Amino acid sequence: DAQTIPVDNTYREVVVHLNREFQRYAVENGVYFGPVDDDEIERLQYLHGVFNMVFDNRLIFPPIPRPRRILECGSGSGAWAAEVAEQYPECEVIGIDVYPYPIPEDAPGNFDFQVDDLNSPSTFPSNHFDLVHSRMMAGGINANRWPGYMSDVFRVLRPGGWCQMVEIYYNAQSDNGTLTSNHALQVWSQTYMQSISGYKDPRAPLRLQNWMTQAGFVEAESRLVTLPLSGWSNNPRDNAIGAANRANVHRLLSSLAIFPFTQILGMSNTDVQLLVAQARNEADNPGFKVSWSSYVCIGRKPGGSSKSHRHSDIPRSHTPAKGSKHGESSRKRAKH
């Protein structure tokens, strides 16, 4: 592949902070502050399972009956990309991430994993992909990069191609209004947003549809899907989702906080662990009925066959969310 080079060992280097491994390149360049160790890979697998439950095992929401090329931005453990590659064996599926996570042992042959920093202009050719999938990128895309990122996604899509995005807004809310600003979960939420705000846009999940429209996408549609933090709901389906999400939440409250809370805000490890422990207890407490808002947004690049303009099928929820081309670069992506 002329567009790739062997992955540089710089991307493999890690630093250990409070017994967790972080990618040196990511933390030193303000790219991403979450760990990249085996515990985090396990958490990402839990989160993927939760999303599969939320989306009824649907991996692709727009109408793309026979995709030929799919790109996933921020593929992490590669779970989504590997499942899509298995579901569409004739499709070339590329997953891209800033850290060379281990490729799943059972990954199909049509799945390719590459390494690149998505805060730089994309080096993929124009009009190339049928779908670009971007999930959980708010912690990785720089605050001022989002318009350029969306323009890159627009450029690499073929006419008629689709963009599909999923993000979680980490502002804990209680269904019955019992969670106040003094509770640990709300303190965690506000502290997290404060800790990354100099680098990232913590409110990015709420702005996806606007950014899509500004980039030139049509039929842009966004929905809010409530994500319970534990099994507190009287609705059997939501209760099962919350129960499954508990393992992800317990790990996430620690893994996303360790580096930015201590290294950016200067909190002590003792204070961080105490806050995390209290937040976990509140997340588990059925009396608070706590949830996060996840945002699902799709949009189509104009043009293409009329067959691709059929009505999309993105997840429904109780509350609808309100809602320049870059030249080719000489920088190349790293082949895993």
From TrEMBL:
The keyword Methyltransferase applies. GO terms for molecular function: methyltransferase activity. Keywords: Methyltransferase, Transferase. GO terms for biological process: methylation. CDD domains: AdoMet_MTases (cd02440). Residues 302-336 are annotated as: Disordered. InterPro entries: SAM-dependent_MTases_sf. It holds the Pfam family Methyltransf_23. Residues 325-336 have a biased composition (Basic and acidic residues). Belongs to the methyltransferase superfamily. LaeA methyltransferase family. This is S-adenosyl-L-methionine-dependent methyltransferase. It comes from Schizothecium vesticola.
